[in-house]
Amino acid sequence: xxxxxxxxxxxxxxxxxxxxxxxxxxxxxxxxxxxxxxxxxxxxxxxxxxxxxxxxxxxxxxxxxxxxxxxxxxxxxxxxxxxxxxxxxxxxxxxxxxxxxxxxxxxxxxxxxxxxxxxxxxxxxxxxxxxxxxxxxxxxxxxxxxxxxxxxxxxxxxxxxxxxxxxxxxxxxxxxxxxxxxxxxxxxxxxxxxxxxxxxxxxxxxxxxxxxxxxxxxxxxxxxxxxxxxxxxxxxxxxxxxxxxxxxxxxxxxxxxxxxxxxxxxxxxxxxxxxxxxxxxxxxxxxxxx
Length: 290
Prior knowledge:
Layout: E1 7-13, E2 16-23, E3 30-34, H1 47-51, E4 56-60, H2 80-93, E5 99-103, H3 107-117, E6 122-127, H4 142-149, H5 153-157, H6 165-173, H7 179-182, H8 185-195, H9 200-228, E7 232-237, H10 245-249, H11 251-254, E8 259-263, H12 270-284
Parallel strand pairs: 3-4, 3-5, 5-6, 6-7, 7-8
Antiparallel strand pairs: 1-2, 2-4
Helix pairs in contact: 2-3, 3-9, 4-9, 6-8
């Protein structure tokens, strides 16, 4: 099998089937790719083959997302702490001893919680629109903030629009010039098909509510960045409606050697700038050790 060929695998963790994509050889530095909302490891489909000759690439689907199991929210506690616990066990299950993390959106609090829990195993950080700073949160969070402050049924129901096809398409297209001809329609279609599963709506509403626990941990994440000074790269779609460029710049406050690169695109920067981001990661990889 060529190094850039992707394998599609499943590992069982605490009774859950965790789907993941894997490519490359374990002799190279491992890069753990952590997706966000409302997507899955599918978002890395074009990046993995570009880097699999230099990295051992592993991209799991979080519980409740993609092709991993998605138990009903009454039988599985959908919090970011629990997601990080499952992914931590997943890394042990498949034998990852040391790895850098590529974090996007929800993948950031999952990955940074991993870093707090397993500090000696993290070799570097790549943040693609993965926030850890208050100044990185836009006004687009206001409806979710309202739910944090008053978790009423009315405020919960107001967030259901976030799971709609219109919102999914908007998330992909916002801030992207000529989006209708540049964004692969199957990315939107797959995300929406999975969001439309009967149990998915309540799963996502639970996670919207729990995101406030990530904001509470921002000081701890930042303390980790300052203490460990790991090789850090922020690659950011500057037109992201949720995570502002200030959130990318802030990484340099805690790690002055962090490199920050902006692209004229939106939230899902890999959909339009996979070549450019791939080139930055290839250069960044020289700082990592297997």
